[in-house]
Design goal:
It is built from 11 helices and no strands. It is mainly α. The protein has a domain at 2-32 and 116-270. Helix 2 packs antiparallel against helix 3 (76-90) and helix 8 (170-204) packs antiparallel against helix 11 (247-270). The longest helix is centred in the last third of the chain and has 35 residues, at 170-204. It is globular. It starts with a helix and ends in a 7-residue tail after the last helix.
Length: 277
């Protein structure tokens, strides 16, 4: 019975995407690439991706080391708060490298997708994209969980941040919200969309660049089950950037996605319900 339900859910999600995606994407402008080509290529894109991963891993290690030095080695909440803070500090060189590469272009801001757009228009477009994405956001992770159960016989482990969110006190909840909604989207969109995707777009075209940036973005989110759950988000963000070439729209959509997830988990927690897995 679970297998039948899973197949039905996958067919429903596929049908939803096929029915709604084409008329929806037609409403988004297709940005020209003629004057927006990046001055870097795949090698630089992969180097910046590696720098981002290494910097993030070092931030985690620094958070753990500082927690141990403070005598709180077993305090997972403190370790997460320190690691989250260090992540953005340690990735300042990543941002610097991206800006240096962009500065070589004729239009440095435009090549990164930082084009002028009114705040109400950007928010409206991002909100419409997010509302289209909600059924996928709810259905796909559930389908991944059920598929994981069928193949492995056990549910996938929850992401560390999810586990903390379900048990954290209010100071840590504020830290998680700031990190997930305000800090992570700008950094990740700058790395994966504005730099990695643009770097692969130059020699290979839009669609291959979308696949590469989506795969790297998903893989950077941890274990295989979590990476699979992030695939629809990664593809949506990459396609949004490919069509509009507007980094602000991607950041707003990413922030809405993370905020929805945090609020949903807080509602489950307040209601005394377990996280579905």
């Amino acid at each position: 019975m679970p297998a039948v339900f899973l197949v039905g859910l996958l067919f429903a999600l596929t049908g939803y995407v096929l029915v709604t995606a084409r008329p929806f994407t037609r409403r988004l402008p297709l940005a020209p690439l003629t004057h927006l080509e990046a001055s870097w290529g795949p090698a630089a894109a992969l180097a910046v991706f590696a720098l981002f991963i290494v910097s993030s891993l070092l931030a985690d290690l620094a958070g753990v080391a500082l927690a141990i030095s403070l005598g709180h080695a077993e305090d997972s909440q403190l370790r997460y708060a320190l690691s989250a803070s260090f992540t953005y500090l340690f990735n300042l060189p990543t941002i610097f490298v991206i800006i240096r590469f962009a500065a070589r272009s004729t239009w440095p801001s435009a090549v990164l997708g930082v084009s002028p757009v009114s705040a109400p228009r950007a928010l409206r477009t991002s909100l419409v994209v997010f509302l289209f994405f909600i059924p996928i956001q709810i259905g796909w992770p559930f389908a991944v969980d059920q598929l994981w159960r069928l193949l492995s016989g056990s549910p996938p482990a929850n992401q560390a941040a999810v586990e903390l969110l379900l048990s954290a006190d209010w100071p840590l909840l504020v830290v998680i919200f700031i990190a997930a909604v305000l800090l992570a989207p700008p950094l990740e969109e700058l790395v994966f969309r504005a730099f990695v995707q643009a770097g692969f777009e130059k020699p290979f075209g839009r669609f291959p660049a979308v696949i590469v940036s989506s795969a790297l973005f998903s893989g950077a989110h941890g274990d295989p089950a979590t990476a699979l759950k992030v695939v629809p988000l990664a593809l949506s963000l990459s396609l949004l950037y490919a069509r509009t070439r507007n980094l602000f729209l991607c950041i707003l959509f990413h922030s809405l996605f993370n905020a929805f997830g945090v609020v949903l988990l807080l509602v489950l927690r307040a209601a005394g319900l377990d996280f579905p897995s």
